[in-house]
């Protein structure tokens, strides 16, 4: 490669003008740009443009005829100002955090436990169990949530029917606020735990067996093996999986929409379901866009800390 | 050839001229007509035959007017119709005619073709339009969409007359017979009597199936009760009218009383839960169009045979029934406005309206009060005549109501979709708040809605 980054051109190639064009086309940076162009187009078209348009929408007034004026925030940020003053919105922020954090923690714990269980099953039987445990994750969530909704149905819950057989009183799964929140989290955990399981299983399989052997020689207990061998070796994958799941769970829409529609009394709304209610159902698209944009700073802060941890660990290992 | 004065050059020149003239003057020729293609997106009807009749009527009109009419049906399941409306409004492209649910004409009025001419001609022929349709379909005194027949529903009392007689001592068939008169006891059909009946039916194990969540069935019946007490939450200028509102307090107290006589799980009910309560035989009364009866007729005929419609109970300021209309609107960016107006006018005329209502077993409600005498409501059954009092008729002294009217539509739609009226009651009954606390909350919410339009 030449000093300017172009590839060596072997044969004499026509006029000077043609050769400079040819050189430009053969530069590595040009080829790299051209090859990444399709991906760039997809990212800009499907991520960049909608995000920018969402930000633009959030600055408009309800009729989308001009920028939204604020009392104490600058023009264009009026929708955010109104949200700051809304009891319901702060309740949604609080609920989104409860929902996402508790669901991700439960998914991580259950996924970790399942991965350990599977890891200790012989390979032949493991495949069968792995397949079965992945089923919740491969069913479209809107469909599986509908099944859960039937089980939680306020009047005809099949779970309550079973509970009644054992003389346990019926549970108001979707009618009482804390039960409704628990129901939404249960369904999210049921759906998302297999993803953690499969990621952690892959991570477990990549931990060198020699480390466990060395630990065993040193007389480490099983808890110490887990604490000082398994967890440090899996730390990066745990961090990345938690971050990814946090983003997806924060943005969850279908489970809340199908199961509770945000009720009772808005006590199960999360950002996405509330944004849909405000933006589409109530014909206030700019305010709905402002609600959904609220996820961004929260997730950006989480992503910053998680990725900083990953980078630091990588440097330590190098 | 040149010997006859016909040169190759002349032939080519003349030929090109003929082809050009033909191409320029030719009308837009489509499959069956010469009037272009009209694209319609109608609501996907709950009653399967409801789509068939719309297709049939459009084809008839298309043949008569030499216009090709493409008809699509857009479901409201998962709010698909709302997503379609918003997508088309954003992209300024799509159908020519769309079915707009309750609040959408007001929300999209700047993008809708004025329909005063069509409504003027229809009103001349058929008279007065139901007031709730006027509130929703008129913006700034101008019609922005035409109240549709297909999909428009009312939510009066669909009672189990056997259970009401047995447990509440009310003979609903005698009170509201299948003829244009009020029977004995009809004047006593008030919210007081209703609450007493609800308490008796709950004690008997067949409570009234009235949802109290934030779906439209819940918001509509609670809105009707509030209106019948003259209890508005917001005035026509958009000012909250919560503070020191004695009528609102009185209505809230009545709603609290009624909601304590409902099943414990009504706070989580959706629009299908009340249907199921009636169909399963667990409930003595629901507020619903005849769709629940239609399913019961198929699956639980013994339940359907005991159903009977009555108007909504009256409050101090009259009886108001929940009204949930669809509208037919034309996008301002449509290129087929005259044809679209012609089709909408055709669909709204009495013979076509009656065919739509007949096909939907009486479900569809035309917007003109003069059309409340279709035969289907007298003949549909069993029991024959059960739906006679489903539409609003003069002898009922009942009016249509839209929750949160007379607030400006851009505020009312937000309060409606947030279910502020049902949440107000839920905060008291389920959340344990005092009436003052709950009313303070709803006032703050209305102020939030009002800010920024």
Question: What descriptive keywords fit this protein?
Answer:
heterodimer, A: 318 residues, mainly alpha, flat, disordered N terminus, B: 453 residues, alpha+beta, D-Maltodextrin-Binding Protein, domain 2, five-stranded mixed β-sheet, four-stranded mixed β-sheet
Average pLDDT taken over every residue of chain A:
88
Radius of gyration of chain B: 26 Å
CATH architectural grouping of the largest domain in chain B: 3-Layer(aba) Sandwich
Mean pLDDT of chain B: 92
The largest β sheet of chain B comes out as: 5 strands, mixed
Task: Give me the oligomer status.
Answer: heterodimer
What would a concise description of this structure say?
The complex is a heterodimer of chains A (318) and B (453). Chain A is an all-alpha fold and 318 residues long.
Can you give a write-up of this model?
The complex is a heterodimer of chains A (318) and B (453). With 318 residues, chain A is mainly alpha-helical. Chain A folds into 2 domains: 16-58; 86-317, MetI-like (MetI-like fold, Orthogonal Bundle). Chain A is built from 14 helices and no strands. In chain A, helix 4 runs parallel beside helix 8 (177-205). Chain B has 2 domains: 37-151 and 325-373, D-Maltodextrin-Binding Protein, domain 2; 153-324 and 379-450, 3-Layer(aba) Sandwich (D-Maltodextrin-Binding Protein, domain 2). In chain B, the strands form 4 sheets. A 5-stranded mixed beta sheet of chain B has the order 2-1-3-13-6, sandwiched between helices. In chain B, strands 7, 11, 12 and 14 form a 4-stranded mixed beta sheet that branches. Chain B starts with 7 loop residues before the first helix and ends with a helix. At the A-B interface, helix 3 and helix 12 of A face helix 3, helix 12, helix 18, helix 19 and helix 20 of B. Chain A: This is Sugar ABC transporter permease. Chain A: It is found in: Cell membrane.
